[in-house]
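Workshop exercise sheet. Pairs work together: one partner reads the sequence aloud, the other fills in the structure field after running the prediction. Swap roles for the next sheet.
Pair: D.N. / O.F.
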Amino acid sequence: MASKSVSTTAGSRQSSASSTGSIDPFSVAQVYYGPETDFTTHKMSNLIRTRTLSTVQTRSTSNTPDFLKSVPRRRASQDAQSMTPRKFLVDVNLTLQALLESEDTDGNMQITIEDLGPKVLQLGTANSNGFNKFDIRGTYMLSNLLQELTLAKEYGRKSIILDEQRLNENPVSRLSRLIRTQFWDSLTRRIDASLLEIIAVDPKNRSKDQNPRIYVPLTEKEQYEYYVKEASKRPHLNLQVEYLPATITAEWVKSVNEKAGLLALAMDHVVDEFTGQSTLRGKPFVVPGGRFNELYGWDSYMIALGLLVDGRVDLAKGILENFIFEINNYGKILNANRSYYLCRSQPPFLTDLALKVYEKTIFEPGALELLVESFKAAIVEYKQVWMSPPRLDQESGLSCYHPDGIGIPPETEASHFEHLLMPYAEKHKLSLEDFQKQYNDGIVKEPALDEYFVHDRAVRESGHDTTYRLEKRCANLATIDLNSLLYKYEVDIAHTIRTKFGDKLVLHDGSVETSASWDRRARRRKNLIDQYLWDEEEGMYFDYDIVQKKRSDYESATTFWAMWAGCASPKQAARLVSDALPKFEEFGGLVSGTERSRGEIGLDRPNRQWDYPYGWAPQQILAWVGLIKYGYEEDAERLVYRWLYMITKAFVDYNGIVVEKYDVTRPVDPHRVDAEYGNQGSDFKGVAREGFGWVNASYTFGLTLITSHARRALGACTPPGLFYASQYSYV
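Structure field:
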């Protein structure tokens, strides 16, 4: 029922006007600032009342906008007595210029608490035809005004009637609305003619060959012909379409690093509405945002949680179908669908995603068939990727992140490995560029570097790139996160085969899977996790080093993934809450790792983005769900509130910002991150258009886990300590 309600609300805000001609003040921008709401065309003249009383004065002052000159005005008393929300008559360009000159004192096209302007600007009311003025005060309302004017200008509007409700909207409602009606759409992609010019762009491509390129599986002839045809229609793109080889090796992947390209995904047969002919249409997916313009692995699972809450089941289903396509054609759910990721996967969440999509589509035709295909693909992935060498450690029986690959990961920023590679370049008397080429081509041999990049690729497969927890040893670690996820696969597969498939699932190769074998796998893995990863003295899980034959001592928030997966016993869960949780809980939620584990930082040992003091959406989400699963609802709600408060306060204070990660120890400006890669989502002018995928999802999903009282407190930006001081002894 919740998703139906959300969907209805979102849909109602697409409409432009009611039967009386009034505009929904929370319509999406393309409607609110569209041609149907342009009163200057007289289509919506009833939105602005002209004077019907006695004496009429016309404007002739030099500072009056041209479009208001000679417009009748009425007495101010009518505005003062009105109890209805105000509407303002706004000259877009003049007001935008005045606003920026007055309030954007640091010149970054944002209005934040750090700007030193007067924090007030007057707007004329629509009922007085702009004559009577009203003060727009404070950072939040002024930054919302900047956002609205930026959008209006982009839609070509020179003058608008602006509802005050769009400026003083409750920040929780505003951010939720933007995520639901704008951000998801801005991040949605499909690989077909409709979005080729957007999706083919790769901000990470540093090769000399900048031509966009699509690689198509050898078995997908129809897709290949489709892309060739579409490329011919767009000669300006210089789009290259190539087949992948029948067998994809690390050597081949390295050989095309200078010809990096997009990997094809699933498509549907549709009828072109204009030509009436059959064609192909890409299945949709949602990208994280910023420089990440492709389908990612575990990002997409987190994103799907938010999509399902917001009623965007179509997008969550599209993600699922694209994952199945990846496993069937590329052998794994990829880190992301670019050629340089072909050897690398990411943390596996397929079974849980498939079950959640099935719950939302259970009465739709084909729902059970999609669930069957999802679990067939998950079993293939489980066996061929995670339970095969080099990822499987035969001795312990646990799995590690350990992708194949050759050379230096090409998708990183140009300077990322300079500090590492420069001494080797100097040793061989080569420039940095020449050394990298000769090393990648195998001309220069450096075993120490080979070892380093084995672990570096593993770190990237883990999704935790980068952290001192995993640096220079990731491929040797049986991590609590990966093995918790694989336990969840085993439990999900056993339960689903037993309850949905009649205790029998026939795979594409003819082999038969039953629930009993997967139950045994789950029990065995739980025993191994307890043996190798659980530390009774510390009351938490640690990674296990398969080479050194001992547990790591790095304290990571991934310890709570065992609760999400359900592999912790009630006693272990109690220890995690009593002993581990206090180590990670900070002002804005859970920190990725403890300060003690990170160690000292400095010029020679800089911050890593998955270490203290940074917090990430997936760590929060998995901990929330895990705590609730074991009955620790109050702890979960407190953590949810901390995280949502931090996001909301930054959104209010910093011009609607929503970013990839946060410094959870900073109450004031948590979006500022002093680590490699910076912070995606912070670089915008005037208005944020997409947020960041899994943070959007964490906000939408998190709101479903707190009370209405907590939501009201969030809307008032009540700090966590103040909010909980009257309810719990914990502050």
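Discussion prompt: The chain has 26 helices and 22 strands. What would you look at next?
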